Automatic annotation (TrEMBL):
Residues 71-295 form the Solute-binding protein family 3/N-terminal domain. This is Glutamate ABC transporter substrate-binding protein. Pfam families: SBP_bac_3. Belongs to the bacterial solute-binding protein 3 family. Gene3D superfamilies: Periplasmic binding protein-like II (3.40.190.10). One of its GO terms (cellular component) is outer membrane-bounded periplasmic space. InterPro entries: Bact_solute-bind_prot3 (IPR051455), SBP_3_CS (IPR018313), Solute-binding_3/MltF_N (IPR001638). It comes from the Bacteria. Residues 28-56 are annotated as: Disordered. It comes from Nocardioides caeni. The keyword Coiled coil does not apply. Residues 1-24 form the signal peptide. The keyword Plastid does not apply. GO terms for biological process: amino acid transport.
Length: 310
């Protein structure tokens, strides 16, 4: 019975993504030279990965670092429910918490916003190749990524957890990740989630999918036993499948989200940080959280305190 449970809804969402007219993600050629981190190819210091640059309202300097004049190209998800997702009822319009952030940055810059649907695995490579200006795709800030790209200040604090079938929830609540030994756990390829679960529970079999929708399809078809990812993402998956639950559990890791930017585009990073600060001071951050995430996470949270000490 598990192998035939409702996979039609997420599959339909995938079909919408292939027909809504967004640019296809083109992976850079393997021999393309990546952008070196730092202003002159110097390594990026990472004593504190949460630290970004001080905010600046200099829109002109930020616009000068855009790939295309008058246009901000932002890599986003279109299948992460409530963060960046496409609603077939609304002609494939992408919306969500991350999309609100991208929209506000484009408006503050005074340029047109172009959303480009990308996979988690392509976030860094597309920035390095100069194909997109920003990534607003629930991207965790860490030192390894700082060595390749730059980041805004943290704009949301997520945590990594595990989603299981309702029948397995009691065992998971009792035993935690120990109960995953010998089981197949899915996470997107190129995500911190798949690295973390491999380290935290090496006795589980990590299964990679292109994205979390792919994990949900595998879960509903009985190919995997659990899905791991950020609590924001898992709440959206559980909302789509009544047989899937996120049991009460301790967080596996902290997953602070930042906007990804090319390492050399420091003026753009500074401007993004000014927009993020404005979203908090004007109440836009809370309005967006209350709209997209609170109904599924069920808790009130505060915006992160930014660190601008880089």
């Amino acid at each position: 019975m598990i192998a035939t449970r409702r996979w039609i809804a997420p599959l339909a969402a995938l079909l919408v993504l292939t027909s809504c007219g967004y640019d296809a993600t083109r992976v850079p050629e393997p021999d393309a030279a990546p952008t070196q981190p730092g202003a002159a190819g110097e390594p990026v210091e990472c004593d504190n990965p949460l630290a970004s640059y001080s905010p600046s309202g200099d829109a002109e300097a930020a616009r000068a670092q855009l790939i295309n004049e008058g246009r901000l190209v932002v890599g986003v998800s279109a299948d992460t429910f409530q963060m960046g997702w496409s609603n077939p009822i609304e002609n494939g319009v992408i919306k969500g918490f991350d999309i609100d952030v991208a929209r506000d940055i484009a408006e503050a810059l005074g340029v047109r916003l172009q959303l480009r649907v990308i996979s988690a695995a392509d976030r860094v490579s597309l920035l390095q190749a100069g194909e997109i200006d920003l990534v607003a795709r629930n991207m965790t800030v860490n030192c390894d990524r700082w060595s390749k790209i730059g980041f805004s200040a943290v704009y949301y604090n997520a945590t990594q957890k595990v989603l299981v079938r309702a029948d397995d929830a009691e065992a998971f609540e009792r035993e935690g990740v120990t109960s995953l030994a010998g089981k197949k756990v899915c996470a997107p390829r190129g995500s911190t989630s798949i690295d973390n679960i491999t380290e935290i529970q090496p006795d589980a079999e990590a299964v990679a999918a292109t994205n979390h929708t792919g994990c949900l399809v595998k879960f509903q078809q009985g190919e995997v036993d659990a899905i791991t990812g950020d609590d924001t993402v898992l709440a959206g998956l559980a909302a789509q499948d009544p047989y899937a639950v996120v049991p009460e559990q301790d967080k596996l890791t902290d997953e602070p989200y930042g906007i990804g930017v090319n390492a050399d585009d420091i003026a753009l990073i500074r401007f993004v940080n000014s927009v993020l600060a404005d979203r908090v001071s004007t109440g836009e951050w809370k309005r967006s959280y209350d709209t997209w995430l609170k109904p599924y996470l069920g808790v009130d949270v505060k915006a992160p305190t930014p660190d601008h000490s880089r």
